[in-house]
Structures are given as C-alpha cells and as structure tokens.
Amino acid sequence: MRTLIQDIRYGMRMLLKNPAMTTVAALTLALGIGANTTIFSAVNGLMLRPLPVANADRLVVFDGRAQGAANSFGQFPFPDFQDIRSQADGFSDVLGYTLSLAGMEHQGKVEPVLYSYVSANFFQALGLKPALGRLLYGADTEKRGTENVVVLGHAYWKKRFNGDPSIVGQQIKMNGHPVTVIGVTPEGFHGTYALVDMQAYLPFGMRMLWITGNKKDDYWTERSDGDVKLLGILKPGVSRQQAQVSANVVAQRLNQAFPETHKGITYHLYPERLARPDPDPSNGMLIVGILFMVLAGMVLLLACSNVANIVLVRATARERELAVRTALGAARSRIVRQLLTESLLLALMGAVLGTVVGVWATRLISSIHIAVADIPIQFDFSFDWRVFSFGLAIALITGLLVGLAPAWRAARSDFNQVLHEGSRGILGSGKSKLRNVLVVAQVAVSLMLLVVAGLFVRSSQNAEHTYLGFDPHNVLNFTMETRTIGFDQPRTEQFFRAMEDRARVLPGVESVSIAASIPMGYSNEGGHIFAEGQTPSSKEAAPSALYNVVDPAYFTTMRIPLLRGRLFTDQDTAKTPKVAVVSEAVANKLWPGQDAIGKRFSDTAPSGPFIEVVGVVKQGKYTDPVDTTTLYYYQPFAQNFRSFVTLQLRTAGAPEALIPVVEQQIHNLAPGLPLTDVQTMEQSLGGVNGFFLFRMGSRFTVVLGLLGLVLAIVGVYSVISYVASQKTHEIGVRMALGAVRADILKMVLRQGFILVGAGLIAGLVLSFFAARGFGSLLVGVSPSDPVTLVSVALLLAAVGLVASYIPARRAMNIEPLRALKYE
C-alpha cells in the first residue's frame, strides 16, 4: 500500500509537471468518456433501470400472436386477462392496465389528463404505498358499478394541485362525471408504461362510464378485441421459460374454449426492461441501443489512440529518467507499474471531466420536446449507480489501454543502451511504427463514424422528403374531446357542424374538416377485416387494418389523391348503407387483380355486416415515415360517431397566424373545452411516430462523427508534428547540402500522405462491413452508398492533409544553421 501511495504521488507530480500535455490528454479522454456515458445513460434509462416497484426483476410483459398474423398484439380482452390471472400458475400475480385520455375539471378549469384503468391487484402486486390517502384495492373495483374514485399520479398532483394534501377526499370531474380523489401514488412512480408519466388511475369498474355513442355493454365478455396490457410477476424460483409453459397452457385452453376468436393464438413473455415501450419481437430498440454504444465505443478508442500517442511521446522524453531509475535498482516491473499508474490517473481525470460532459448532455436530451399532443412524455436519463459504475469501468479500461503501449515498450527496452547513447532515446528513435499504426487506426475509425453519420443523415432526409400520400404543408390541427365537458352525441354533432361553418369563413382558410386521427399520430383504431365471400382459417388470421373516421372534406384538406370511384358526400349518413374509401394496399390485399369498387368487406366477422367500397385512394404513410404496406381505410363520420377528433384547416398562408382566431371561435361555442395538439401538421410529423427518431439518430451520429474527425485530425497533426521535430537535424543537413524548401515540404507531407491514405483504405473496408450491420435502419439509401463513401473519404483526406501541411510548412521554414546546432 505504501508503494501504491508513493506511485500515485509521483504520478501526480509528473502529470502536474507538464500541465499542457495533461490538460490536452484529459480533455481528449473526457470527450470519449462523455460520449459513452451519455449514450449509456440513455440506454440505461430506456432499458436497464428497473421500475421503482417490488419484485422489479421478476416482472414480465405479455404479448400475443395469432396464427397466420403478421404482427403481434400487446393488448388483451378483459375476460382473457381474468382467465390468464386465475389460471397461469407460473406467476405470483398478473395485473392489467390500459391507457386513455380524459378531461379533468377542477375549480372550473378543464385540462387533458392521461389515465389508466387498473386491475384490483395493480398497486398491491407492485408493492406500492400511497404518498397520501389510499390506493385502489379489492375485487369490487373490477365490477361495474364500483365507486367513482381516482388516484392521482405524484408528479401530476404536484403540478396541477400544487402538492395540496387537502385534495384527498375532494370531488373533481373527469369527462363531466364527478369522481372522488382517494389518494396519491408514491413519489418516483410514473406508471408501468415506459416514456410516459401516468397522471391518474381509475378502477376497471368505471370503464363503461365514459362510453358515449355506443350502446354495447360487452366489455366484460367480449373476447375479439381488447385494450388491456398485462404484466406478470414470476413466482420466486420460477424462470421466464417455466412461466412461458404455464402461459402456453392457458392459451391452449382458450383456443379450445373460444375457437372462433382464439384459434392459433399463442402468448409470449418478455422481460419488462426489454419490452419498452411495447414488446418487440425484432428487438428494434435493443439493436439501436447496441449500435450507438458501439459507435460511442469507437469514439473512445479514438480518444485512447490520441492519448496513447501523447503518452508515448512523453515516455520518449523520459527514457533517460527511466534508465537512471533502473540503474539505481528499480525493478522493471516497478517502472511498468509506475507508467500504468500515471495513465490510470490521467484516465480518472478524463472520467471526471467526461462525467460532467455526460450530465450536461443527458440533461439536454431529457429536455427535448416531442410533439405528442398533451401526453406527458418523460425521458429519465439521470445518472445512477449503473452509469457511474460504467464510467468508472471505462475509465479503468481506458487507463490500461493508454498506458499499455509505453509500459510494454518500457518492459522491452534496453536502458543500458539509453545511458550509453546519452540524449538519444530508444523509445522514440526510429521506432515510431506503433504511433503510425495508431494514427492509421484513428483515420480508419473516423472514416467509419463519418460514413455512418452520412448514411443516417441521408436516410433522415429521404424519410422527410418521401411522398407521404398527403400534403402536410399549410395544415393546422386542433385536437379535442367533447366528453371532457360532458357533451353527449347530439350536442357534439351540433357543435362540430357549427365549428366547421365558422372556420370555413375565416380569411385565408381554403378547406376545413374533422378526423378521428391524423397520420403518424398517437391514436389509431384498427382490427381484422374480412372480404365478403372469403373465409379465413380463424378470425385472427384475417388481415389487420387501421381506419380513420373522417368527414367528406377531409380528402380535400389533406390533398389525398383519389384513384378510382368516389369520395364521401353529405348523402353518406347514418340512415344509408355503410361505405368506405380504402387505400391501395387494402384493395390489392383483399381483391388482387380486381376492381375494388363495389366490393364489400366487414370489420366485425366473416358473416358481416358488410361495408361497401366506394373509392380507392393512393397509399400513404399512416404509422411511420417508412410505412408502405399498412392496410388503411376510411369511414364517414356521419356513420361512425366520434367525440375525440382533430379539426384540420388548410390555409393559403402561414397557418400559425390563425391559431388564436380559431381557438376563440371554438371557445365561443364550447367554453372550457380543452384543446390539445394545437400545431401545424408539419410540427406534428416531428413526433415519435414521425421524423423524431430519424432526426435524433442523424444528430447523434453526426456528433459522434465530428468527434471522431476532430480526434483523427489531432492524431495526424501530433504525429506529423513530432516526426518533423525529430528530423530537425536531418532537415538542417539536407538544406545545407542544397535541398530547397519545396523538397522539405514534400518529405514531411509524404509521411502524412502515407498515414492518411492507409487510414482511408482501411476505413473504407471497415465502413463497408459496418454499414451492413444497420442497413435495415436506413431509408432510401444503400449501406454502400457511393456518394456518401466518396464524399466522406474526400472530406477526411482534405482535413488530414491540412493537418499534415501545418507541421510540414513549419519544417520547411527551419533555418539550416539553427537546425545544425539543434543537438
């Protein structure tokens, strides 16, 4: 221990003795470590940090798949949930919840609120205790007719009610219905659905309270469609694979009991932390997380290479010191340990600075706003023990990597020769191959990072400029839910008509319409569809389609091209036969090679009732910017009432100018009606389902690529500069013998040409293979895109040669007499 303390003290003195070198090295490592901790903190927040509940390590998420269906489903019918909970014996508990939006009224002010219906065992199974009042317990809360109560989320209670404890026991209104606040969830619990902060919790028994315009009361028995998300808690000692077996047994029982709706259905279990926000059989989020961790690791390797070069140069200057210490009796192992100690101290300095960079970067990322109406999106990328442990681990690894080269050289060097040669050292004299290899590696990795960044940028641009199937320019959105102020169906229909009439006469408005959802929005409706005369092997084997409920002017407002047939008219009413306008994908799927006009399909069962196709419109992007195959159709609003709609206006000029005018007109007709998602269609497309992920991905990769470029430039410059300084005497001799300055410039630049050229060749090969690893994430661009490869190679070649030219120019200006006296 005394020896270790002595090494640390001596190492600190040596680092402080050369503050310029220490500062540059520490800042270089800080960039690499900061990039890694930032990416890891995001991965940690999204996939690694457990929920703040009991038994978080035993939580699994249920997913389902129907035989012959292309996609899985993560939502279950309520009676299926009850059967799974009572029959699956691999779990100590199974709990269910839903996601919904409502309007909460308090003291005359109505605001949208994100809430969950939760099962009777929800809070108890998660081991949660209330911060105030009580939580929801008891089997009666799942029966219709239960008391109208609500539990507030802790963050929402703080924000909306200023943390007032007296709110417990008070009555508020949700969707116009009185409910009593009975408690507040514990601090730090934001719900069980990733990325959102759940604001309120209601018992399942209140589920039918909000239904308007729907006379059906079959939520408790209907098994064809559902909205319940399921979480299971494994029994102690039971593995996920064993629990999967018990889930399969329940699935088989339901297959036999309900063959019409459950034939071929299977259940799948995912660890909760790997099923965020929803189960993904392709592990898309995991793949993206690994990709960015690898890219950040490349930046760290570049930083290590740079610092290793700096340390090698420093070790060259210390050869005589190390030789004297050896001559005085220091063991070679002690010399190696001393060099490693100094590199570890340097790495720890970089880790401290890198942590500061990481904290700043994660706060910046967490503050990013995403256009998802008033849904409370939450990015929790804060540092915890995992992030700090990761930072410490990479600091130790970095220290070892940085110190390995000089320590290995010191272990193999002949210090007797150093003493005999005086000032001429062994570590740096004629033995610069390692430094050259490091620079070549830096250029290669930098090229790969820049290629990845270029591909992601081009992919993002392609996604944003691809044809969407509609025109998002000059369209203004106002989303509203009339149930939040207690409007029934007749009053809502009257309000919508008056609202559209007033909006149409506003200056600059070209078209006005309403729709139940918007492209790439957060709300979509869908289900299985059955072509008349075509009977699938099971209900779930039928193709799934999304649909929208719109009024006749919608297609004009969104400028959706009609290919065949007609669009909706005012004659399509509740008293006329049901009709639909379908996308090209629906027409080709249900009636390949036929004209879909006049054909009929059902969204209920193979036997009907049926909906007649009256028009076919051009295929668009409905769920994400790369969506090209989603089946989609439209139904007229007059035949499918909705109280949750988006008012859309197409304007001749900038639509933002009309926001206050339209809001005033709406509130004149419906005082207190909360409006959400008040933004242009282009702004809405910047949401999670739109271009947000593409933009964030391209920005991340560009930042990492630029970091790599800077580090590569520094590496090339430092090595060429060092080589030129080592050849000062040689340059003086050459110039004394008649060499002109141009000859000296060529001599020094040749070294830079060789290093940069070798790095470019290696980098192109590396990029070729690396790009294929994430080719599935690209849109409209090949992993071997020649434009990107050539552009990046030329850019890196240009900056690399500039980095070589600066020391070369300095070398050719050396005075011969001064150079001859150099040594």
Low-confidence segments, given as residue ranges, are: 423-431
Q: In percent, how helical is the residue content?
A: 40-55%
Mean pLDDT metric? 85
Structural class label: alpha+beta
Largest sheet descriptor: 8 strands, mixed
Calculate the terminal CA-CA distance, rounded to whole Å: 42 Å
Number of helix segments?
Answer: 23
Radius of gyration: 33 Å
Shape: elongated
Give a count of the beta strands, DSSP E runs of length 2 or more.
Answer: 24
**What percent of residues are in strands?**
15-25%
Strand-helix topology:
Elements: H1 2-17, H2 19-48, E1 59-65, E2 72-73, H3 78-87, E3 91-97, E4 100-106, E5 109-118, H4 122-125, E6 132-133, E7 149-152, H5 154-161, E8 171-174, E9 177-184, E10 200-203, E11 229-234, H6 240-257, H7 259-262, E12 266-271, H8 284-317, H9 319-327, H10 332-366, H11 385-412, H12 415-421, H13 433-465, E13 475-481, H14 489-504, E14 509-515, E15 525-528, E16 530-531, E17 544-550, H15 554-558, E18 562-565, E19 579-583, H16 584-590, E20 600-602, E21 611-617, E22 632-636, E23 644-651, H17 659-669, E24 675-680, H18 681-684, H19 692-726, H20 728-736, H21 741-771, H22 786-812, H23 816-820
Parallel strand pairs: 5-10, 7-9, 17-22, 19-21
Antiparallel strand pairs: 1-2, 1-11, 1-12, 3-11, 4-5, 4-8, 6-9, 7-10, 8-9, 13-23, 13-24, 14-23, 15-17, 16-20, 18-21, 19-22, 20-21
Report on this structure.
This protein is an alpha+beta fold. It contains 23 helices and 24 strands. The strands form 4 sheets. Strands 15, 16, 17, 18, 19, 20, 21 and 22 form an 8-stranded mixed sheet that branches. The chain has a 6-stranded mixed barrel with strand order 4-5-10-7-9-8. Strand 20 and strand 21 (611-617) form a beta hairpin. Helix 9 crosses helix 12. The longest helix is centred in the middle third of the chain and has 35 residues, at 332-366. It is elongated and about 105 Å long. The chain starts with a helix and ends with a helix. The model is unreliable at 423-431 (pLDDT under 50).
